[in-house]
Specification:
mainly alpha, membrane, transmembrane helix, transmembrane
Length: 53
């Protein structure tokens, strides 16, 4: 049962990519990296603001 649950998100992601035809896995990695970097920038800005107070 746990093996089925562990594989489910990957299968769903593959199905979504296959049916929508959006870009390559590399494109998704780039988008994920950009999202991670922007979240990091927001966190650092918030942290700097907190230290100024």
């Amino acid at each position: 049962m746990s093996e089925l649950l562990a594989g489910a998100p990957v299968d769903v992601a593959d199905d979504v990519l296959a049916t929508t035809g959006i870009g390559s896995p590399l494109a998704w990695q780039i988008v994920s990296l950009l999202a991670l970097l922007s979240a990091l920038v927001v966190l650092v800005r918030w942290w700097i603001q907190q230290r100024k107070r």
